[in-house]
UniProtKB/TrEMBL annotation:
Upper taxonomic lineage: Eukaryota, Metazoa, Chordata, Craniata, Vertebrata
Protein name (record): Serine/threonine-protein phosphatase PGAM5, mitochondrial
Membership in a protein family: Belongs to the phosphoglycerate mutase family. BPG-dependent PGAM subfamily.
Chain coiled-coil ranges: none
Organism of derivation: Illadopsis cleaveri
A GO biological process held by the record: programmed cell death
Length: 221
């Protein structure tokens, strides 16, 4: 609901309001800037941890985060913010990446936590969450995308560059149709780059890029 026409209450338009005024109001609601979204999957973590606080990054995972941070810094972009999942592995990944991007504010959110977005098609035999988990997680992840992935606000004058550190299931839920999300695989510390134009059109520049990592540092756990 960010199309200019959706932002104007046409019912309140007076009869004497002409097409010229309507065009002016529409123009005022049009986005002018492009948003660049960088979706980062957290680095490798301890799979044996029973609770989230125990699922900390492995030594290799910390190396991966360093490499991702250096790669982002090397792009020479003025990043506006880093929004990250509140889970331990995403928070730790963010802390390491942020060392390479001094001054960029960090924001934690529960919306980006890992989950099961939708029942996969075709189904898989090794992983079958309770049906209720799809409803709970799917609604939350959908809320995250509605909240964060959209065209720029009409007040935004310059292009923006934002980093989101989260989880594979959240990132790969972008696929259309959505039930095919498990057909995608994302490496730890990978970079997915979305571009959202002022007219709302979205382009995928890169998906799960880890070409900046040595082969022996690449994992998908």
């Amino acid at each position: 609901r960010r199309e200019p026409l959706a932002l104007i209450n046409l019912k309140k338009k007076h009869e004497e309001t002409g097409e010229e005024e309507l065009a002016s109001r529409l123009d005022h609601c049009k986005a002018k800037a492009t948003r660049h979204i960088f979706l980062i999957r957290h680095s490798q973590y301890n799979l044996d941890g029973r609770a989230d606080k125990d699922r900390t990054l492995t030594p290799l995972g910390r190396e991966q985060a360093e490499l991702t941070g250096r790669r982002l810094a090397s792009l020479g972009l003025k990043f506006d913010q880093i929004i990250h999942s509140s889970m331990t592995r995403a928070t730790e990944t963010t802390e390491i990446i942020s060392k390479h991007l001094p001054g960029v504010k960090k924001i934690s959110t529960d919306l980006l936590r890992e989950g099961a977005p939708i029942e996969p098609d075709p189904p898989v035999s090794h992983w079958k969450p309770e049906a209720v988990q799809y409803y709970e997680d799917g609604a939350r992840i959908e809320a995250a995308f509605r909240n964060f992935i959209h065209r720029a606000d009409a007040k935004q004058e310059e292009d923006s560059y934002e980093i989101f550190v989260c989880h594979a299931n959240v990132i790969r839920a972008l696929q259309f149709p959505p039930e095919g999300w498990l057909r995608l695989s994302l490496n730890n510390g990978s970079i997915t780059h979305l571009v959202i134009r002022p007219n709302g059109r979205v382009a995928l520049r890169t998906l799960g890029d880890t070409g900046f990592m040595p082969p022996d540092k690449i994992t998908r756990t």
